[in-house]
Amino acid sequence: MTIDTVLDRIPRPTAPGAEMEAIRRFHRDGTWVGTIQPGGMGPGTPLQIARGRATHHWIQDGRWVVGDYEQDQLLEDGTFVLKWELHWVCGWDPMAGEYKATIADNYGRASILRGVVDGDRMVFESIGDAPPMLRLIWETTPGNTILWRNEASVDGVTWALIEDYEITPVA
User: Fold this and answer.
1) What gap in Å lies between CA 38 and CA 162, rounded to an integer?
2) Whose CA is closest to 118, among 26, 8, 27?
3) pTM of the model
């Protein structure tokens, strides 16, 4: 057996394809100001104002995008409540034939989500049925902003808005 024959048997990393290019427009650095709905952070929690920012970078020759998100959450009168942080890794899983993402936040929550791109929308939902389930929605607009929503469900059928933002891309 020659060395070329041996090397030909070793699987090689996948090359990023059109699927990764399709999600690039949803993963732009940006800032936002928006609202967290009353009850959105748990029963009885008040409406909050969120001021956030996102940064992204591509790893493994463009096979995955990594996003770091953080936002300051304030009461309506401007009182600081907390800083929320989330780490996102997203890409195309060729073995499953679908988009997958992982999230980990400073509440200690870690989840795997599956996603789809449909035109100007990208939607990711929690995998599994342990509540609360999350649904994250990005929608690109002709004005170069991204509309983003975070929804939760306890049954996977009825979804409630937690928060929504208009993300303004930054250079």
Assistant:
1) 8
2) 26
3) 0.91
